[in-house]
Structures are given as structure tokens and as C-alpha cells.
Amino acid sequence: MPLMAVSFFFFICFSVLQIPLFSTTTIHKTALIRPNFTTQQDISPKNDTPTTYFEVTNPIKLPKTKSCSYLVLKHDFAYTYGKPPILTNYTPPSNCPSKKFPKIILEWKATSKGRQFDRIFGIWLSGVEIFRSCTAEPRPNGVIWTVKKDITRYSSLLMTNQTLAVYIGNIVDSKYTGVYHVEIFVHFYHTEKVRNPFKGFDSVADLIVPISRNLPLNDGLWFEIENSTDVQSKEFKIPQNVYRAVLEIYVSFHENDEFWYGNLPNDYITANNRSDIAGNGAFREVIVSLDDVVVGAVWPFTVIYTGGINPLLWRPISGIGSFDLPSYDIEITPLLGKILDGSSHNISFSVTNALNVWYVDANLHLWLDKKSVKTEGKLLEFSSLPLSFSLASNFTGLDGSFVTNARRSISMTGWVKSSYGIVTTRSSQSFSYSNSMVMGNDANLQVVDQTIEFNDTVYAKTWSFSVQVLESFKKFQLHMYSDGVEMGDKSYASISNVTLLFDEKRLKCGSSASSVHNLQNAQGYMLVKDQSIDSGLGSTQQIYKYNDDKGCYFRNISSSNYTVLYDKVINSCSKLINTVS
Ligand SMILES: *[C@@H]1O[C@H](CO)[C@@H](O)[C@H](O)[C@H]1NC(C)=O
Ligand SMILES: *[C@@H]1O[C@H](CO)[C@@H](O)[C@H](O)[C@H]1NC(C)=O
Ligand SMILES: *[C@@H]1O[C@H](CO)[C@@H](O)[C@H](O)[C@H]1NC(C)=O
Ligand SMILES: *[C@@H]1O[C@H](CO)[C@@H](O)[C@H](O)[C@H]1NC(C)=O
Ligand SMILES: *[C@@H]1O[C@H](CO)[C@@H](O)[C@H](O)[C@H]1NC(C)=O
Ligand SMILES: *[C@@H]1O[C@H](CO)[C@@H](O)[C@H](O)[C@H]1NC(C)=O
Ligand SMILES: *[C@@H]1O[C@H](CO)[C@@H](O)[C@H](O)[C@H]1NC(C)=O
Ligand SMILES: *[C@@H]1O[C@H](CO)[C@@H](O)[C@H](O)[C@H]1NC(C)=O
Ligand SMILES: *[C@@H]1O[C@H](CO)[C@@H](O)[C@H](O)[C@H]1NC(C)=O
Ligand SMILES: CC(=O)N[C@H]1CO[C@H](CO)[C@@H](O)[C@@H]1O
User: What are the boundaries of each domain within the chain?
Assistant: First the structure.
């Protein structure tokens, strides 16, 4: 039988040394204890061809002509854990005509064979993160996966020489044999798009300042946030002719916080004398500060990595966001008045209630006024209220229920004077969070229902009263049901159901700019014996709907036991209206 790396609940997409954090002699609390599992047995069809894994997303709309393609890195990632990232010189291809905002696509192609955990990884261009992802877990006959990402917004970097860094924290030994064979391409496409003189919200930045750790170093360029008081910061300086600034945040959570939305409150842990389980409750947020003032936050989507909960759920259809983790933009233009002084400032990150470990970094996208050497700005209004938070616990022994609610809002208004005139920008974020958790069967059963709403609004007004409004309404939902039963003889059975929803509506000047509705349901069971999966099954159904001003995309797909059961794609808006209500 072929073999497979399976990790249950814990330890997933995780790049720190694999020390079992929990003693495995613990009793039967299978929903609480999230150890790693692997197996020599591969519960899969026997054949010789590698399996192709994929994440369901809308294909990138490409211009007809491809100018050029460039293999930027080919590397085998074997024992790379704790070592420096792989570095290579990036040079824009000389045969690529024009510097006129071509469409630029990153293509990640990888294969792996044998047994391996899922590993988090990142790609940086001179310290600017352009891709955060998780590897697929290999199979004995091998797996292949390809991810394409539109990286046009990083054009300013891609048109000049840079250092490309890739870090995957992989560990290879006699048991975990999977080496990741990776090829990274950049594809450049022609576009006829004419540059807008007053660059609107869609334009790409002229300069991107990395808010990440400096090379040379070991591990990734991300900051590692280990606990709730850990603050990681970076000093930076911007040119004095900036007229717009957007901070893009990358985030992923691992080890004790990989399943943060299922973590128990500390009073439960203390009452039950169970310091071996992950605590600090189920609420987390990434806090972004500028010179020690909270200016933004990210309430992240609950990405489940390829080995999470029951790895069989995510084969071959990977979890939402697992192959291309979302990044989050915060418009900080109103704050430019504070940082246009030519001196150094700090951006820092912390994570409310964090347990070890969060990987966080950011890119500061800056738009420069080509017609002046100095712009001016002033912050007019700023409001950042403290987090509103409530927790209602009701438990007896290991069973009970917990309801957590939280809200936050941040808003700011400021003007910037440039050769475009005086532009007043108001930027706001508002968040709400609710999490209901039930523990039953002496904590063998856990049910979590979580909803995050995450709204961003940017409103820009010039003297000529032309107004631009960009709104983003995000809704992230998670349902997780996990039930385990002790079978004796160091074995147990578990079933799990997971629902993930990623919804985002973007409005421009009040009318729809794009919308995505991405819903995944997964069910599975596994029999775990002596920390190995003896048998099991995973099934997934997914509905993906996307539309923007260029068209529509709909996909209805399902898989079970590694096989796609149905896969319906609709590409045309008119057909979509007729087929799906
Ligand atoms: C999964 O497929 C394999 C091979 O086709 C088959 O042997 C196995 O019984 C299936 N498992 C389940 C639970 O249906
Ligand atoms: C970019 O790198 C290439 C290849 O190393 C080199 O030939 C070229 O001179 C560099 N360009 C600049 C502007 O440094
Ligand atoms: C939190 O993490 C930081 C960084 O590793 C460390 O210096 C600090 O001692 C930790 N604090 C606590 C309370 O563990
Ligand atoms: C708590 O657990 C530890 C380790 O399992 C044990 O040594 C200790 O006696 C327990 N304390 C109580 C009050 O049950
Ligand atoms: C940035 O933060 C570091 C560490 O806290 C501090 O030493 C430095 O003075 C700060 N710089 C500025 C410009 O505030
Ligand atoms: C706490 O849970 C118990 C058992 O489910 C229930 O009987 C009781 O009404 C709950 N108390 C509160 C305050 O919700
Ligand atoms: C987000 O926007 C939606 C749509 O306007 C609204 O219904 C919801 O209450 C908002 N949520 C928050 C947290 O602001
Ligand atoms: C899990 O999902 C299966 C299949 O959709 C469903 O039949 C079952 O009722 C679900 N179980 C729970 C507890 O939600
Ligand atoms: C997806 O396809 C399945 C199987 O054909 C069907 O039962 C289901 O209604 C479809 N869902 C949508 C939203 O079209
Ligand atoms: C990869 C990994 O972390 N493996 C660990 C899983 O748990 C067993 C038992 O606790 C450890 O021995 C392995 O090192």
C-alpha cells in the first residue's frame, strides 16, 4: 500500500521543529488533543500516476498576447527548516516590451512524492511578500499542484532587478521523505490599458516598501508573533512626494493557534487542569500600529491548511485559501500627514490573545507624485475605539458551551496636497465576530460556529468634488463539527464536518465592482490507530461564484475518496442567470 502523510488537527502548515507538544498518553479527549498523525497506509485508489490537487477559484482573465515568460527559480526543497530562504537574482526579462502595466502572473508548480506534512511558505521580492501558501501533502505516487496568482500590483518591483527569496520550512528524514520540487515562473502579458492621469483605486503603486524582517536571516521574512504581548515592529521611511498609501498584510497561524477558532477559554483549562490543550479562547485579531497607535486590524479568514482536521477532506480539492492565502489591504492615506516628514517611523504588529505562532508581515504600497518632490498632508479626524468583547461560558467538567462576541471599528480622515490638488480621504474598518462553541461527550465532541464580518470603506474627494468610493464587505464563516470515540488499544475513530464560507462584495462608487461567493462543505471520517490512519474517507462539495465588470464565473464541484464526482463550470453571465438563481 502506498503511504501518505496525514496530520490530524494539529501541526499543520507548520514550520517549527516537530516536537510533540502533548503527551500522547493522555486520555480520550480527542476533540481537544490535536496531535499529529501519519500513516504507512494510503487510503486511496492504487495507481501509478500522481494526483493533481487544486484550489477552486476564478481563472485569471488574461490579455490575448503573452509577451514573455520567465522561469525565476527551480529548486528542490528538502531539509530547509530553520535555514536561510533560497535566494536568487530576479531580473526582468530583456525581451519583454514596454513597461506599461502589463498583466503579470506568478505561477507556482510543484511536485512531491512520499510522505510529508503540509508546510507554510512565502515568496518575497526584495523583502516584499508576493505570495503566501501552503504545500500539498504528497502521496507515494506523487502529487502535482499549480497555483497562479495575479501579481500585477507588484509591477514596480517586477520591472527592475530584485532579490527573490523563497522559504519553505521543510523537514526531510527517513520517515518524512517528501521533497518539494518547485518551479516558479513569472508570465508577462501585454495590455492596451491606458494610464489614468489621476490614478484611481485600480492603479498599481509606484513604490512598495517591505514591512518584513531583513535579510540575511534564517526562516521566512515574516515576523513571528508568539504570544499576546509580543509586538514586532519595523522602522521605515517614505519619500516625501507620496499621495496615496495602502498597507497590505499577510498573515498565517500555526501550531497552538492553527485552529484558534476552536481554542478553549483559560478558565475552562484551569478548572479541568488541562494545561496540555490550546487556550486563550477562540478570538484572535491582528493589530497594526503606526508609531504605537492602533491604525488598522485584520480579522482573518479561517484558512484550513491541506492537513487540517482530516486531511482526506482536502484531496484533491484543497481548502479555501490554502494554496493562495488572502492578504488584506488597509488604506492609510489619511495618515500620510504623520509620515511625510522624511524621518523614520514604525509599523508594528501584534495578535490579540495569540499563542505560538503567527507569521505576519506587510507591504506598504505607495503612489508618488511625479510632478513634485514634496506633498503635504494632515490628519483631520481619527477614531480607534478599544475592542468590545464578551464571553459567556457555561461548563461543568469538560462539557459546556461558550459564546464569544467582539466588535471593533477604526476610522480616519485626512487630506493630501499634491499636483492632483487637495484630496481628502476617509478610510474606515469595521469588524464583528461571533463564535459559539459546544463541547460534549466529555470533550470528545466539539462544535464551532463562527462568523466574521469585515468591512472596509475608502472615500476620496477632490476640490473639484469628484468622488471615489471603494467599499468591501467581507463575510467569513466556519462550521466545524468533530466527534471522536475511543476504541481502546491506542486507537480511536473520528468524524468531522466542516463548512467554510468566503464572501466578499466590492462596490465602486456605489455600484458592484466584484463579488465572490465561495462555499465549501466537507465531511469525513478516519480510524486512527497508534497515531496512524488505518482507514477513512473525505468528501467535499463546493460552490464558487464570481462576477466583475469583465464577466462571470460559476463552478459547482464535488469530490469523494480522491475522485471528482461532478464538476460544472459556467463562464457566461447570461447562462448563469438562466441556470442559477
Ligand atoms: C476509496 O477508493 C478505493 C479505490 O477505489 C477503494 O478501495 C476504497 O474502498 C474507497 N473507500 C471508500 C471508503 O469508499
Ligand atoms: C540587472 O541584472 C542584470 C543581470 O545580473 C545586469 O546585467 C544588469 O546590469 C542589472 N541592471 C541594473 C540596472 O542593475
Ligand atoms: C512573549 O513573546 C516574546 C517574544 O518571544 C517574549 O520575549 C516574551 O517573554 C513572551 N511573553 C510571555 C508572557 O511569554
Ligand atoms: C493536574 O494535572 C497534573 C498533570 O497531569 C497532575 O500532576 C496534578 O496532580 C493535577 N492537579 C489536580 C489538582 O488535579
Ligand atoms: C521604532 O521602534 C523601535 C523599537 O521599539 C524603537 O527603538 C525606535 O526608536 C522606534 N522608532 C521610531 C522612529 O519611533
Ligand atoms: C448551562 O448549561 C446547563 C446544561 O446544559 C443548562 O441547564 C443551564 O441552563 C445553562 N446555564 C446558562 C446560564 O445558560
Ligand atoms: C458590514 O456591511 C454590511 C452591509 O452593509 C452590514 O450589513 C454589516 O452590518 C456591516 N458589518 C459591520 C461589522 O460593520
Ligand atoms: C455531517 O455531514 C453529513 C453529510 O452532509 C450529514 O449527513 C451529517 O448529518 C453531518 N453531521 C453533522 C453532525 O452535522
Ligand atoms: C450543484 O450540483 C449538484 C449535483 O448536480 C446539485 O445537486 C446542486 O443543486 C448544484 N448546486 C447549485 C448551487 O447549482
Ligand atoms: C512529524 C511529527 O511531529 N511527528 C511526531 C508525531 O508525534 C509522535 C509522538 O508524539 C512523535 O514521535 C513524532 O515526532
Answer: 3-196+206-580
